[in-house]
Amino acid sequence: MSRFFSEKYASLTPYTPGEQPRDNQYVKLNTNESPFPPSPNGLRLAQEAAAKLQLYSDPECRDLVAKAAEVFGVAEDEILFTNGSDEILNFAFMAFCDENHPAVFPDITYGFYKVFAALNGIPYEEIPLTEDLTIDPQQYHGIGKTVVIANPNAPTGTVLTLAQIEDILKSNPHNVVIIDEAYVDFGAESAVPLTRKYDNLLVTGTFSKSRSLAGGRLGYGIGCKALIGDLNTIKYATNPYNVNRMTMAAGVGVLMDEDYTKTNCQTIMQVRQWTKAQLQNAGFTLTDSKANFLFAKHPKADGKEIYLRLKQKGVLIRHFDSPRLCQYNRITVGTKEQMEVFLRKLQEVLEELL
Known about the structure:
The chain has ten helices and 13 strands. It is of the alpha/beta class. The chain folds into two domains: 7-36 and 259-353, Aspartate Aminotransferase, domain 1 (Alpha-Beta Complex); 40-256, Type I PLP-dependent aspartate aminotransferase-like (Major domain) (Aspartate Aminotransferase, domain 2). Strands 2-8-7-6-5-3-4 form a seven-stranded mixed sheet, with helices on both faces. Strands 9-10-13-12 form a four-stranded antiparallel sheet. It has a two-stranded parallel ribbon with strand order 1-11. A hairpin with a 6-residue loop joins strand 9 and strand 10 (293-297). The longest helix is centred in the last third of the chain and has 24 residues, at 258-281. It is globular. The model has no long low-confidence stretch (mean pLDDT 97).
C-alpha cells in the first residue's frame, strides 16, 4: 500500500472474487453464473438503450421499478435498485448498523458481510453453523443486533423456512433483519411477502443468477416504504446514477420474460439433482443445496487437490481454504453437457488420487 493510504483501512481484508479467466479454455463452474444468455427482450432493450449512452440514466429507475413492482407484487416505493446486490447490502450495513446496532451473521456465509462490517467500522458477531453446516435459527432469536442471513446460504446452499425467518423477525422487533436471496429462485421460498407484515425486514436480491445478468450488475432491495427511504438517503449521498442505462433496460426486458427465467431455473434444478446423484454414487457427501451450485467433499480425496487437478484438466470449480471448508468444493450447476464434462474429468482425478 502507499504511504497515503488511510490508517482506518490499513487492516481491511477485501473480498476475494472467484477466478475470471481471460480465455475460453475452461468449463467455468466457479462463480455461480447462469449457463444461459440473458432473455430475448433483455438483450433487445439493452441494445436499444446503448444508442443513448451519452445521456445519464434515470436515477429513480422508474420503468424498471414499475415492472419489478408488478412482478414481485410490491408497491413502487418498496423497492430500490442498485449496482449489483453487493451495493444494496453495503447500503444496508451503512443504514442499519453502527456501534449501537452491531451486525450478526453466520461464520460460514457470503464473504462480503464481514468486509462490509469492517469497511464501515461496524462491530459484528459470527455465529457458527451447526455440525451439518446449517443455520440454527434459534441462535438468532432475541439477539438484539442487525441480522444478516443468506437464504439459501452460500456456499452451503441450505435454507431456512419462512416460519423460521418469521420467528427471527418477531423476536427482534427493534432490529432490521436482512435476508439475502441471491439464490432464492432455485428451490427456496422468498421472504418478500413477509415485508408486508414486518417493518424490520429487508429482502435483497440479484439479477446475476437466475436472470442471467451477472455482467450487467443489477441488484435490489425490498422492504417497507420507510426502510427503502433510508436506503435511498444512502444512495443519493453516494451514487445517484448507480444503475447504468443499458442494465436498467436489460432488467425491464428480463422481467418481461419471466417464463424464460422460470424455465432456466427448472432446468438448472433438474441438472443439479442429476449431478448430485452422480457425485453421491462416486462417494461424495453433499449439503442439501437449494441454490444453483453443489457443495461436496470426498472422504478419501483432498478437496484442494481435487480443485487443482480439475483446473489442470480445464474445469474450474471454487475451493475455500478455511478450516471447516477446506475439504469441500463448490460446483456451479451448468448445462447438462458442462456437468458431463465435469464428471468425466472428476472421475479421472479420483482415479489418480485413490
